[in-house]
Amino acid sequence: MMVGSRTHTLLFSLLLLASLVAESEGRVDLKYRHVYIRNGLGNGIVLRVSCKSDTVGLGTVTLKDNEEFKFQFQTFIFTHTLYHCSFTWGGIERKFVIYDFRRDEKYCHDCYWSIKQDRPCRFNNETQNYDICPFDYK
């Protein structure tokens, strides 16, 4: 009797998961993510930002010193969400993956980035500074 009960529970769970997947066309919704990009170049340097995913282009935004740009999106279980950005100042374009689900999902529901001249830096809640800077531009 115990085995039959486990089989029914497993079958019910699989059917529930299948219906969720079918409802969302292969994607089970998760929470919204927010990305904030701040011009941290200093010295009055103007920053042009252009971000996109595989399916969505966000256009180009121009940020003065210390200005911020925000965008949001929803992540899904069966997809690997990536947002690529290009940052242009002084006639040179630099590229960076501003959001990578595999890299950021457990750290970044609200991802705050400061774009600095040598590399982008993520906000550290513990130190209250933009000092998580392990990433370089491409």
Topology, pairings included?
Elements (H helix, E strand, L loop, with lengths): L1 H22 L5 E11 L7 E6 L4 E7 L4 E9 L5 E8 L2 E9 H4 L5 E6 L4 E5 L4 E4 L6
Parallel strand pairs: 1-7
Antiparallel strand pairs: 1-4, 2-3, 2-5, 5-6, 7-8, 8-9
GO biological process, one term: rejection of self pollen
Family: Belongs to the plant self-incompatibility (S1) protein family.
Organism: Lupinus luteus (European yellow lupine)
List keywords for this structure.
single chain; 138 residues; alpha+beta; Immunoglobulin-like; five-stranded mixed sheet; four-stranded antiparallel sheet
What is the total number of structural domains? 1
- Give the termini distance in whole angstroms: 60 Å
Largest sheet: 5 strands, mixed
- The counted number of beta strands is 9
Count of separate DSSP helical elements: 2
Could you state the order of secondary-structure elements as H and E? HEEEEEEHEEE
Classify the beta-strand content into a percent band.
over 45%
Helical residues, percent: 10-25%
> What's the gyration radius in Å?
20 Å
Sheet/helix structural class:
alpha+beta
Please name the CATH topology: Immunoglobulin-like
The first-level CATH class name: Mainly Beta
Tell me the CATH architecture.
Sandwich
- Compute the average pLDDT: 81
Low-confidence stretches: 14-29
Keywords: Secreted, Self-incompatibility, Signal
InterPro entries: Self-incomp_S1
Family: Belongs to the plant self-incompatibility (S1) protein family.
Protein name: S-protein homolog
